[in-house]
Design a protein that fits this description.
CATH architecture: 3-Layer(aba) Sandwich
Number of domains: 1
Distance between the termini: 23 Å
Number of helices: 11
Radius of gyration: 18 Å
Largest sheet: 7 strands, mixed
Number of strands: 7
Length: 275
């Protein structure tokens, strides 16, 4: 995994820098997907990525469960938790985020409990959960703390519970930035000054860390068509709306067909159990 080095001119520790940047981002975007997805993408493209993440998670939750207890790590304003509660009203969700503003929004939007905390510092007093949702959170944690973080999450899982993990894959990074072109096209964006950073993972590197943490990957899903056609999708959805949705519907069908392949992907969705 590539770890970015903190700016030596900044006197704040990296963790506090990250908290400050997420506070700024949460206040700028509020309850908008752009606050937790891609700042520079057209809304319908972000909506498409959100739907992929949400549908994958919903498909892993057992609808026969009478009670469902979920821990949402990096809960944000409740982007994933809100539709889960609509689909499974019997669910109790606890949110965790490093941004106080996002915690306030989460509680307002979901009427569920939420706490300010780092993922690696989850309190055992929260109890045990059937599912832990962790979307693009590990990418902000230093490499030397990843095993401890995953271990802590596993310790809060019930027997046969599942960790639902989504992280950016190094294989899709260059396609996501269109080999640097998107950075050039969006450099005048007013949100560019918000630097929440983050890293991408080499597939084998993250897989090894998960295994060393005492976990087992039982399923993986990818977005190969979306990744390989990222620039085309960006331009098309930037210029068109109705036709952009038609293109995304077509690409989603191709992605569904190729979801288990080892092709490059901007994200990989892992379903994880304790070993």
């Amino acid at each position: 995994m590539e770890i970015k080095q903190p700016d030596s001119k900044n006197k704040l520790p990296p963790d506090l820098i990250n908290v400050a940047e997420w506070e700024k981002r949460s206040k700028l975007f509020g309850s908008s997907p752009k606050g937790v997805l891609f700042k520079g993408l057209p809304d319908i493209f972000n909506e498409y990525i959100h739907n992929w993440q949400l549908n994958r998670i919903l498909s892993e939750i057992d609808p026969k469960s009478k009670e469902i207890n979920i821990l949402d790590i990096g809960c944000g304003y409740g982007r994933i938790s809100m539709p889960i509660l609509e689909t499974f009203p019997q669910t109790k969700i606890t949110g965790i985020d490093i941004s106080k503003n996002y915690i306030d929004l989460f509680q307002k939007n979901t009427r569920q409990d939420a706490f300010v905390s780092f993922a690696e510092d989850i309190s055992p007093h929260l109890g045990l959960f059937d599912y832990i949702i962790c979307i693009t959170v590990l990418m902000y944690i230093n490499e030397d703390r990843l095993e401890k973080t995953i271990n802590n999450l596993l310790n809060t899982l019930k027997k046969n519970g599942r960790l639902l993990l989504i992280e950016p894959s190094r294989s899709g990074t260059y396609f996501q930035t269109c080999f640097g072109l998107l950075n050039f096209l969006t450099k005048t964006d007013k949100t560019a000054a918000i630097n929440t950073g983050g890293n991408s993972f080499k597939y084998n590197s993250l897989k090894t860390i998960i295994g060393n943490s005492g976990a087992k990957i039982i399923k993986e899903y990818r977005l190969p068509a979306t990744t390989l056609l990222f620039l085309i999708i960006y331009v098309f959805t930037k210029l068109f709306s109705v036709k952009g949705r038609f293109l995304l519907t077509l690409i989603s069908k191709i992605d569904n067909f190729l979801k288990f392949t080892k092709l490059p992907s901007i994200y990989i969705f892992y379903v994880i159990e304790k070993q």
